[in-house]
Amino acid sequence: MTTFNVFRYDPAIDKCPKMETFDVKNERGMTVLEGLFYILENLDPTLCFRSSCRAAICGSCAMHINGQYRLACRTQIEHLKSDTVTVRPIAHSEIIKDLVVDMTNFFANLEKIKPYIINEGPFPEREFLQSEGERKGLDHLIDCILCGCCYGACPSAGTDEDYLGPHALMKTLRFINDPRDKGGKERLAFVSSENGVFRCHTVFNCQEVCPKDLDPSSAIARLKMKAVWNTLKNLVS
Ligand code: SF4
Ligand code: SF4
Ligand code: FES
Question: What is the atom index within ligand 3 of the atom nearest the CA of 73?
């Protein structure tokens, strides 16, 4: 048996949040997500959490597990090396119920950076071809699954809901580095604004917690350098 300590809160009826304890029958290889399903199916059908792919692809099961942001579907209970599994929701977002948070702001910030190719043509007859080297330049930047772990761990996101956040800033570099995209200048100007790259204090929390081993903090540092370089160029021209 493993003890699950789970954050519970229903803003519609509860005055304040509480932690609730459940005994979960633990089998070898069981993940934290499977533990939560065990609770849902055997102990408390009112427990709320998100999940979909169960394969570390969709990003919906991100939560705070034993002191760190992780994907519940890819965290095996035995790897936590503890008799207790403590699960809390992602921070910096309003709680809808239990482990489910409102991701509206997270996705609204992503939308603000225009997460699609900007190119007004002329367009090729069939498709834009990309060389192997050009595609390589997008490696890692393109692999974000928008789980929100970095956003929950980011102190700047916690103190300023308008801060674009590590996920949106890294995505900006993904498009700036894509030769098919012609919106580089516009993008750089946008992220050089008050709620963009200079709100980041480079404390590397985002890099530390990313379950896909991506490095948003370095992406933001590269954007900062590009922004400064751009300003200098404008000053001397
Ligand atoms: S950068 Fe990593 S932690 Fe942040 S949303 Fe993308 S996959 Fe999740
Ligand atoms: S490095 Fe920047 S974006 Fe990443 S957690 Fe720190 S403040 Fe947030
Ligand atoms: S359920 Fe999709 S990433 Fe965990």
Answer: 4
